[in-house]
Specification:
With about 300 residues, the chain is of the alpha/beta class. The chain is about 30% helix and about 20% strand. The chain has helices spanning about 95-100, 115-120, 125-130, 145-155, 170-180, 195-200, 205-215, 235-250, 265-270, 285-300, and strands at about 5-15, 25-30, 50-55, 75-80, 80-85, 105, 110, 135, 160-165, 185-190, 220-230, 255-260, 305. The protein has a 9-stranded mixed β-sheet with strand order 7-1-2-8-9-10-11-12-13. α4 runs parallel beside α5 and α5 packs parallel to α7. Bound molecules: iron/sulfur cluster (SF4) (2 copies).
């Protein structure tokens, strides 16, 4: 009997992306992550399971059309609107079909490797003209490492350049296997202090720093360290100096990209029924970011600001 193709849970496949590596890229957002960064702009990618987004601003008062449609009794009336019990919701999507206002949407879709590759192939002419390719992102693509490796491998077999946007919080053998089919690693470093890292992301940074060192020992793939600049959280001179020391201590000095904090994903938290903790944090100004970059230069590394 033929076995069914393995499926991955994909949040979206974004075409014509220009921020996830060189050239024009197709970014595949995987669902599931080991970290819970307080500033995450893609919170819908954190939970591995398929889940619901509810946009109250689109919902019609007293419509209640979806309430009786949920076999799991996950939807109930809540004043003029509805409430979702997310523990009961399986993400089956029945309620979505009856909501013509599109106030309910399913986040995550089971796709097999061939389906993902079909989407990727649509942009092949743009990769060739721009020096772009495919980026696996998330979430953490290696949360679904077997599926991610299959996608990377097939891209390489078809001559498509690959990038892996990773937290680095994964067993080395898994990461090493993925690197076999990866041309560029976009590697997040969020804080150098293990305790602070744990407070901000839920996990320590020891595996992350160790894996960065191991990638850097190889001459390929290209390693880019990406630093989110979180005003007042990880941009104090002490942390920046430690960051510069760490980068300079690596066997091959990687490129350093600074990613200014932004609030583009804040609205998603309410849709997922979650609270955004960093309510009062504001994005850094252009001058502020350049001061951070200057400080890093003083400590011996020259970063690129990515906006
Ligand atoms: S069907 Fe849509 S518009 Fe109607 S109550 Fe449910 S979410 Fe709101
Ligand atoms: S997705 Fe399915 S289980 Fe979840 S609320 Fe809608 S109908 Fe209920």
């Amino acid at each position: 009997m033929e076995s069914r193709p393995q499926k991955g849970v994909i949040v979206k496949i974004q075409r014509f992306s220009i921020q996830d590596g060189p050239g024009i890229r197709t970014t595949v957002f995987f669902k599931g992550c080991f970290l819970r960064c307080l500033w995450c702009s893609n919170p819908e990618t954190q939970e591995p399971r398929i889940e619901m987004e509810y946009s109250k601003e689109k919902c019609i008062p007293q419509c209640y059309e979806c309430v009786g449609r949920c076999g799991a009794e996950a939807i109930s009336k809540d004043g003029e609107y509805i409430a979702i019990d997310r523990k009961k919701c399986s993400g089956c999507g029945r309620c979505v079909k009856v909501c013509y206002r599109k106030a309910l949407t399913v986040v995550g879709e089971g796709m097999d490797v061939a389906e993902v590759l079909n989407e990727i192939e649509k942009d092949r002419p743009f990769y060739e003209k721009s020096g772009g390719g495919v980026t696996l992102s998330g979430g953490e693509p290696l949360y679904q490492h077997r599926f991610a490796v299959q996608v990377l491998k097939q891209c390489k077999e078809r001559g498509i350049s690959t990038a892996l946007d990773t937290t680095g919080y994964v067993e080395w053998d898994i990461l090493k296997n993925a690197l076999e089919y990866t041309d560029m690693v976009l590697y997040d470093i969020k804080h150098l202090d293990p305790e602070e890292h744990k407070k901000l992301t839920g996990v320590s940074n020891d595996i992350i720093l160790e894996n960065a060192r191991r990638i850097s020992e190889k001459s390929f793939p290209i390693l880019i360290l990406r630093i989110p600049v979180l005003p007042g959280i990880n941009d104090d001179p002490k942390n920046l100096e430690k960051l510069a020391q760490f980068a300079r201590s690596l066997p091959n000095l990687p490129a350093i990209h600074l990613l200014p904090y932004h609030r583009l994903g804040v609205f998603k938290y309410a849709r997922l029924g979650r609270e955004y903790i960093l309510k009062n944090m504001q994005p850094p100004t252009r001058d502020y970011i350049h001061r951070v970059a200057e400080l890093l230069e003083k400590f011996g590394i020259k970063p690129l600001v990515v906006t």
